[in-house]
User: Fold Methenyltetrahydrofolate cyclohydrolase from Symbiochloris irregularis.
Amino acid sequence: MAAADSSGQAKLIDGKEIAATIRSEIKVEVDKLKEATGKVPGLAVVLVGTRGDSETYVRSKRKACEEVGIASFDADLPEDVSEEEVLKVVKEFNSNPDIHGILVQLPLPKHMDSYKVTDAISPEKDVDGFHPANIGALAMRDRTPLFVPCTPKGCLELLKRSGIQISGRNACIIGRSNIVGTPMAMLLQRHDATVSVVHSRTADPAPIVSRADIVVAAVGNAEMVRAAWVKPGAAVLDVGTNPVEDASKKRGYRLVGDVAFEEVRQKAGHITPVPGGVGPMTIAMLLKNCLESAQRILQG
Ligand SMILES: Nc1nc(=O)c2c([nH]1)NC[C@@H]1CN(c3ccc(C(=O)N[C@@H](CCC(=O)O)C(=O)O)cc3)C=[N+]21
Ligand SMILES: [Mg+2]
Assistant:
């Protein structure tokens, strides 16, 4: 999209386009793997219940797999399925040699212990990167996790492909979730950024965010990050996908990010839109993790 111009508009980081490029790179590698081994990567997706947003994400993941030649294996289980049954399904996928990646869509119903379920995924097939063995390795210097969680990995790729320097710069993560904020902080620290994490109990986030050259907003709070918080020229990555009622849309809502896009774009140097920013990268990185897993398992 348009370069940063004299009117002070941030460069738009087009995650949708970058993700499409990555998916075509993955397709080439899938074809090569198939040529060399006669096998394709396999991804198992476990969906419990009928949450609308989860069904939408899972549908996008399965479609993306199909497009690059990754075989997808589905387990769609009812909302009231027992934890024991989910664990059984995960274990079957662990021992299925055609499956190289397993993802259990979160959140799970309240009657289940999510940690118990995600801990049951073999760390070698943990394409979400949520297993403590993978998160633990991510947190440690001089260790390489088998998998890095998809959203943080997608954000890193956006920074790299947009030519944004990470080493030596201040980064601020807004939010401390297990699946985005915390692994994002660890990943940027591994890339030699000076990392701050602000969250719901932070007394005064504004001056901390204002020092950051790189801001990653991952709180799930619509348009919370305002221009006054943002350092001029900062790179702002928006992980939020908050539904806001909108009768003019077919599905009755539109998605807005955690960043007040229109005002922040006047001040930032780079910014990701919602939709079309981080979201499509999350899916592209899932495919990449699955490909890399298959390469590791099939080719060493
Ligand atoms: N085990 C697990 N792994 C996950 O990676 C995981 C999860 N559970 N639970 C929910 C969150 C959320 N998430 C998104 C993926 C794609 C988009 C995405 O593609 N968004 C599009 C818009 C999609 C739309 O229009 O509905 C975009 O931002 O352009 C968003 C959010 C993955 N998650
Ligand atoms: Mg629970």
User: Anything to note?
Assistant: The chain has a mean pLDDT of 96. The longest strand covers residues 42-48. The pocket of 5,10-Methenyltetrahydrofolate (ligand 1) is lined by residues 56-57, 60, 103-106, 128, 150, 241, 255, 274-276, 279-280, 282-283 (CB under 6 Å).
